[in-house]
Amino acid sequence: MAATTDTQHEEQSGTDGPAAPAARRRGRAGRIVARTVSVFGELLITAGLVLGLFVVYSLWWTNVVADRVAGEQADKVRDNWARDRVGSDGPGALDTKAGIGFLHVPAMGDGDILVEKGTSMEVLNDGVAGYYTDPVESALPTSGKEGNFSLAAHRDGHGAKFHDIDKIEEGDPIVFETKDTWYVYKTYAVLPETSKYNVRVLDPVPKESGKKKAGHYITLTTCTPVYTSRYRYVVWGELVRTEKVDGQRTPPKELR
After folding, report:
1. Catalytic option among 104, 158, 163, 223
2. 34-70, pLDDT tens digit by residue?
3. Which of 104, 154, 163, 216 is catalytic?
4. Which residues does the annotated region (Disordered) include (predicted)?
5. What dotted CATH number matches 59-255?
6. pTM here?
7. Is the pLDDT at 140 greater than 70, yes or no?
């Protein structure tokens, strides 16, 4: 019995020997690591939720808000046009207070895009297209003068009016609607990618599109690739004809 008791005592003493503190330290270290991993995981989940909400805001909610604002502005323009009719069949004078007209590009989908003056974020964030006043001044088609009617709009967020610009191909129509005239352009060149600092694409004679003589051109620009602003996507068109707007605002055949 004594031998057995001594052996048990030795075994019990062995568990409280030099190895025990090391084991306890390893246990504490493991618990610390586990807590750290848990906290880090929770932070990652929170960051993911915040990022997800930001993406929803940027790519969905800004579209909702911009479309609402653009719709209200477009209604004002068309209401002004209706009130200022000249005679029973005439459209009246052009209104420029809330917008100068509407862009129609069947390749990008049905509907119209209100066009306003300027290409600042303040203008474009309202879900419209804006014509350039800087660094190259756009030539308005209503002036009757030769030049380049150059426009910009967002490709993602804030209405994303030019999101499907890559669907436009050579030969596709681009129509600009004013109060009294339809301006019908035909796409003749596309530049899928160029520097965002390349302002030559806006020149009155856009030589990068292959043109060498003055004419009546239209240029659409937006950011590319989608969801970035690294480069610019450019589409050029040339005026092929104009049509007077009738009392029913019958669209040209390209839009029917």
Report:
1. 223
2. 677 666 666 667 666 665 555 555 566 677 777 787 7
3. 154
4. 1-25
5. 2.40.260.10
6. 0.74
7. yes
